[in-house]
Specification:
Layout lengths: L18 H14 L8 H18 L5 H6 L4 H25 L3 H15 L2 H4 L5
Length: 127
């Protein structure tokens, strides 16, 4: 299996990088540190929850309007970007550990959600 290095010198965007390239890069990162023994489904699920809580903590006590204004605040955006990346890295690692094809999983889940929440019935409704 070839790995794709996505070091700091090659900052790439969503439109340029595949999920598989990200999964490979996370696998490479974990492997270089010998962390595979710690990357079991239970511990990864815990790590995802912990990192998601850290993401949520950035929003603690903020109003919706205030949170939306952070798009113009480089400090807040930096914190949000890092916490969201941590969540995604652990999700990618779990997909690697369990052999889950994330694209397939997302499309299957969206199909189920389309059946469960038809647009004509749920348009503009949050509940």
């Amino acid at each position: 299996m070839a790995t794709v290095s996505l070091g700091l010198e090659s900052r790439r965007t969503d439109s340029e990088v595949t999920l598989q390239a990200l999964k490979n890069r996370v696998r490479e990162f974990v492997s270089k540190r010998g962390w595979e023994k710690y990357h079991n489904p239970k511990d990864l699920a815990e790590a995802i929850c912990i990192e998601a809580a850290e993401l949520l903590e950035v929003f603690q006590w903020a109003s919706v309007e205030e949170a939306l204004s952070w798009r113009k605040d480089s400090s807040k955006m930096g914190s949000l970007r890092e916490e969201l990346a941590d969540v995604l890295i652990y999700c990618l690692s779990m997909a690697n550990t369990l052999g889950i094809d994330l694209s397939e999983a997302v499309f299957r889940k969206l199909e189920k959600n389309e059946e469960k929440y038809p647009a004509e019935k749920y348009f503009g409704r949050a509940r």
